[in-house]
Specification:
This protein has 245 residues and is an all-alpha fold. It is built from six helices and two strands.
Length: 245
């Protein structure tokens, strides 16, 4: 076998869908975890500086945000390992069903492992749909504040009393109703929107939400790949089929 034929044979065993899903998963998780971590820190700074100046009023929220940041570390580590394992499983099943290295032979253990990856990937896909929806909540809150500031600055809006325009974060349940001051109005609200913390956190939440969406797409590709590979491993003895997943 020549060098060219050997290269073609090796390329035929590459699980392209799993490879694309792995790259997309790593990118999405990196964006979600990195941007989300920094955005949460900026959110705490905004709340402490402008909406809740008494530490005891937002102590629970601070603890929850710190816990979420630790969870982010765990998510990043888990998906780094899980993506590598799924990619390795894709290489193995693709080589097996295409009979690249030896005569095809399945075992109960191999089919159980493939089935386990199918089940686990489905569970993670559903969970990440929830994460994606949850990551859209801070984007919505920051967008409301940004749009309010944009309304105040718009020359087409005739405002007689700019101090009557307020944003009260207490209505979202972020901080308790007895928090002081709890809301920002008029020029104070405009100053908040002009801070670097607000601008950076708002856009980082958008990127984090996009990263969560990319991870959902990657898991959907993983689901199709693992399901197809499992079906091929199960029915290979009866059908002459192959896969590049």
């Amino acid at each position: 076998m020549g060098c060219f034929e050997c290269c073609i044979k090796c390329l035929g065993g590459v699980p392209y869908a799993s490879l694309v899903a792995t790259i997309l998963c790593f990118s999405g998780v990196a964006l979600f975890c990195g941007c989300g971590h920094v955005a949460l820190t900026g959110t705490v700074t905004i709340l402490e500086s402008h909406f809740s100046k008494v530490t005891s009023d937002h102590a629970m929220l601070t603890d929850i945000i710190q816990l979420m940041q630790y969870v982010i570390y765990g998510i990043a580590s888990f998906f780094f390992l899980y993506g590598i394992i799924l990619l390795a499983e894709g290489f193995y099943t693709t080589s097996a069903v295409k009979e690249l290295h030896s005569e095809f032979k399945t075992t109960i253990c191999g089919r159980c492992i493939s089935g386990m990856f199918v089940f686990l990937t489905y569970i993670l896909g559903v969970a990440w749909l929830g994460v994606f929806g949850f990551s859209a909540v801070p984007v919505f809150l920051f967008y409301n504040m940004w749009s309010t500031c944009a309304t105040m600055k718009s020359p087409m809006v005739n405002l007689t009393d700019i101090d009557s325009i307020c944003v009260d974060v207490r209505q979202y349940g972020i901080i308790p109703w007895n928090a002081t001051p709890g809301k920002a109005c008029g020029s104070t609200l405009g100053d908040i929107c002009n801070t670097n913390e607000f601008y950076l956190s708002y856009h980082l939440y958008i990127v984090a939400c996009a990263g969560a969406g990319a991870t959902v797409i990657a898991l959907l590709i993983y689901m199709m790949a693992t399901t197809y590979n499992f079906a091929v491993l199960k029915f290979k003895s009866r059908e002459d089929c192959c896969t590049k997943f």
